[in-house]
Amino acid sequence: MAQLLDFAGGRKPLTYVGLAISAISQLLGFVPYVCIWLVARDLIEVAPNWQAAQGIAAYGWWAIGGAIASIAAYFLALMCTHLAAFRAASNMRKQTTEHLMRLPLGYFDAHATGELRRVIDGCAASTESLLAHVLPDAAGSIAMVVGMLALLFAFDWRLGLACLVPVVISICCLMTMMSGKGMEFMKSYMGALVRMNETGTEYVRGIPVVKVFQQTVYSFKAFHDAIADYARMAQDYAGTFCRKPQVFQLSVLNGLVVFLLPVAFILAPGEADFPRFVADFAFYAIFSAVIPTAMAKLMFMSEASQMAGDSLGRVRAILEAKPLETPANPQPIEGGDVRFEYVSFAYEGTETNALDDVSFEVPAVTTLALVGPSGGGKSTCASLVPRFWDATAGRVLVGGVDVRDADPHELMDKIAFVFQTNRLFSGTLEENVRAAKPDATREQVLAALRAAQCDDIVAKLPQGVDTRLGAGGAYLSGGEVQRVALARAILKAAPIVVLDEATAFADPENEALIQRAFAKLAENRTLIMIAHRLSTVVGADQIVVLDQGRVAERGTHAELVEAGGLYASMWADYEQAASWKIAGAQTEAPAMKGGEA
Ligand SMILES: Nc1ncnc2c1ncn2[C@@H]1O[C@H](COP(=O)(O)OP(=O)(O)OP(=O)(O)O)[C@@H](O)[C@H]1O
Fold it and tell me: Which terms in the GO cellular component ontology are assigned (predicted)?
């Protein structure tokens, strides 16, 4: 709770004020009950001469006044706690979002954006309801229990004791449900709930695959099992474990008057002031109705605090993620060369190195192609240049400076990264390109689009560059999206470009355009390209072949083919596949000219 309240910052005291007012509000809520008792007492004293009862109306007004004051105080309490809760939730969202901005980009590979969104938004919302509603209610309930105990003993301690018995039984029942085996149940129950949510998300994401392969719902066994597991857990907890204590608890609380009657019968004959005794009994009989409400509120409190504890844990996990270390005295990056010196890297939680003792140098304004078998370490290698991750051993130098000694903003300015799966956000085509350089003029955006061979895209869109893309707007094909991403990189005008070339968009027309865009991008820039198709690397100044995280070979295309190693065999496979393609195309369409094939 203390950790949670820290998020409220300057509004933290408002929570305490709110809790105090909520407690006062509950105590004011007793006033009508006391007034009813006073009325009953006065009436019983003068019975049957009812007219003789004085001050009945005054008690009525006091009761109304007490009830209104209690409600008004409750509103005031909620206003205070809401102000603090909103601040705590908004600070929690701000702090986690700000912290995310300082985390290495690789963090977002390991943590899905959906999961992060749920933590930032969902968890803040769940703590908000705890601070705004549950906590003041709990303060009220505690005041109610304390006040109740005082009142119970103030009127007639023997009847008070009779009221207390079911309360104690009820607390014992609650404790049985909430401690020991009950807590274990709750933990497994929460775990089953989380698993069901996770597998549910996986299931929804996989629906296209299920449809394509004509699988039934049950083909998603994990989701089905998680639902069954959750259902079993919920049934076990509610139906088997909680049934007895819950039934017992509710019965004793709601049948409180049953405990009063025998005590009243035993005590009544010996009472000197019988009318007073009857009035006291009436008070307890009416007042006992308050007790189950107070207990129910305390029950909600424990459930909500368990949920908030879980949420806080998830938020803390984000806040404790190690941010990118920034140097106290950053060194300026001069030049566009990139150098890997004995670089090794292992992903968090893995034992084998994804990169092992990798060294190479890319002089400024040259092109380096990273090739090799799948899983060889190409993407990992490229992602160390813009510091998506930091090397575990060795160092990566950009412009002669270790990337860890450079100002992260300057590093980002110097490097443009084109991902394999590029994302366009909801906005116009112009806005999407301008994202790379917010102060670019319209002419510069258009020039970048032209250089990235996007003229056909602009021409086909109904409002040209002003057409909205994404949800509710126009959609672009994969190859077209890649060219728009290249336009972004061209507009950014960074001296170094890291390019993860996509394999999926290889139709001949798009490929030719993408190749031309690559050529434009490489003009006057250092280009590090992850190549999945060997056709794109032939002209590279240098090719590094990565296999199982190690540099297997290095050289130009001609040198590597000559060397007859891994690259030569990959090239031979590539040529063979290409000749199959041509042969296949000629068989299918004998009239097609060789060049078109
Ligand atoms: N986020 C990650 N967490 C743990 N291991 C990872 C992660 N990303 C990649 N790896 C592992 O690191 C190794 C290198 O992967 P990497 O993606 O760099 O290879 P690649 O050569 O780019 O492969 P591909 O050509 O298939 O894209 C692989 O063994 C892979 O399983």
Answer: plasma membrane
**Pocket test residue of 350, 358, 379 for ligand 1, highest count of atoms within 8 A of CB:** 379
Say what the ipTM of the complex is: 0.96
pTM: 0.64
What's domain 338-558's superfamily in CATH? Answer: P-loop containing nucleotide triphosphate hydrolases (3.40.50.300)
How many Å lie between the centroid of ligand 1 and the Cα of residue 549?
Answer: 9
Q: Which residues contact 454 (CB under 8 A, 6 or more apart)?
A: 480, 483, 484, 487
Q: Probe ligand 1: pick from 103, 348, 350, 380, max atoms within 8 Å of CB?
A: 380
Between β-strands 393-398 and 367-371, what pairing exists: parallel, antiparallel or unpaired? unpaired
Of 29, 47, 103, the C-alpha closest to 408 is: 103
Domain boundaries, the chain: 1-155, 156-288, 338-558, 564-597
**Ligand 1 surroundings by CB, under 6 angstroms:** 109-110, 347, 350, 354, 372, 374-380
pLDDT tens-digit readout, 144-185: 878 877 877 777 777 778 877 877 887 787 777 767 777 777
For residue 546, which atom of ligand 1 is closest to its CA? 21
- What Rg, from alpha-carbon coordinates, does the chain have? 36
DSSP string, 309-347: HHHHHHHHHHHTSPPPP--SSPPPP-SS-EEEEEEEE--
Q: Among candidates 279, 243, 385, 234, which has minimal Cα distance to 39?
A: 279
